[in-house]
Amino acid sequence: MNESSSIKLLGELAQGTRGRVVRINAQGSLRRSILTMGLVPGVEITVQGRAPLGDPMEIVFRGFRLTLRKEEANGVAVEVF
Fold it and tell me: What is the mean pLDDT of residues 43-66?
């Protein structure tokens, strides 16, 4: 398995998936917002739940729960465990 096959956008991940943030792809104010929320490279996350249509989604990291819109989540690349 090559490295890129385990890298996914956070917004694509199913409930229960665990991984580590590897990079923030978003730009401008969305990038600043994501970083301010604490989603920075190296942080381990777990997808806790998703709304019925997949937007928004809830993740857990560093003991906190965070709800993200799909646009926000798709700005975060995650290495899946």
Answer: 94
